[in-house]
Amino acid sequence: MSHGVRRALPCAALFLMLLALVVLRWGPLLSLDAAVSGALHRTAVASPGWTRVSRLLSDWVWDPWAMRAVLAVAIGLLVRRGAPLLAVWVGATALAGTALQQLVKALVGRARPVWPDPVDSAHYAAFPSGHAMSALVTGVLLLWLLRLYGARPGWRWTARVLVVLSVVGVGCTRVFLGVHWPSDVLGGWLLGGAVVAGSAGAYAVCARRWAPRAVPAHGA
After folding, report:
1. Burial, 155: exposed, middle or buried (Cβ in 10 Å; 0-12, 13-18, 19+)?
2. CA-to-CA distance for 32 and 174, rounded, in angstroms?
3. What is the pTM of this model?
4. Residue 181: how many CA atoms within 13 Å on its side-chain side?
5. What average pLDDT score do residues 188-196 get?
């Protein structure tokens, strides 16, 4: 079993545990969700300036479509570098993550928070957070690519900082804006982590078998 697959298993197990608690409507989890969301929503209502900044970041900079655009650029660069298998793999991972996320949303059907004085709105079911999952999948895929191609330590360190800020930031803004429960965000992170780690591990195995000289296979 590859390192990537071994890293995917804890994320998948934790996601399934959280999923069960959400489906079963476990009291302590619902109470914690309500307490955190309520406190942050009151702050958002009382701080219109921070709310506008959060909406800009959440609805534009860290929007799932913005994340897909970033991955599209990365896929184009991979094709230009002569790594079509890796380009297809990255695209397939992102598509699989989105499909899985939408499937879980439809099956769980968790309602989003409802407020008498909303500061933002969102569509579809709440669990897991698509914004949180998209940011994590995109960020970790980019870090994985930088590692595969041996990017300089400075570039990798800068990328890690940006990815952490984006992943944590989008999760916080979604709860702050009152469109997700905290457990929705955690679910998006865990499911995204399982998808990317599993994909990276599977790629390392397939690359060694299919095209050991055409594409990098280390770093999974």
Report:
1. exposed
2. 16
3. 0.92
4. 22
5. 97
